[in-house]
Amino acid sequence: MQTWLAKSEAEAFSIEDLARAPKRTTHWEGVRNYQARNFLRAMQRGDRVLYYHSNADPSAAVGIAEVVRESYPDPTAWDATSDYYDPRASPENPVWSMVDLRLVEIFPRPVPLSELRTVRALDGMELLRRGSRLSVIPVLHKHFELIAALGNSKSSFYPMPAKKKSKVTGSRSVLSKKKKSRIRTGQTLTTDSQKIGRRN
Question: What is the architecture, at CATH level 2, of domain 3-176?
């Protein structure tokens, strides 16, 4: 099983909207970025997806969805009335793809981007890279599980390893040790500024 993250603007299609959708399932249309499209095409049935509210106050990971239908052509691409119309696309040459996602859970508390940036264990995550704007990205299993644990925790912050403090005794500095606590651990997926499907 692979793990992913998909962004959706809450005002366009929130995780609560997904919870109200028939069978708590939606098709994730409107992706108009080739790299994000390729990630959609790599998704497999049963893969888990972090649902992320982008351009929100605050932007945050808010729950988990599951891939229930693998990549297939996105018909909004050749629908001239759609916001996601692409004149290059046609049923014979669809160009763009989408998947179906089903809600698994809504986190008891959102995990905001500002908090994720404080978690050293998430270093290297594409979401946290400055300038990163992809609306669909792969996520390491360990990062996925950590964010899921944070979303299901009561704490509003990740317990960082304690900094070493020094006690001055005469002319010597004695370092004190503290235990380090640990915690376990889309619609327009589009180009940079477009929404995910009717989402990000």
Answer: Roll (3.10)
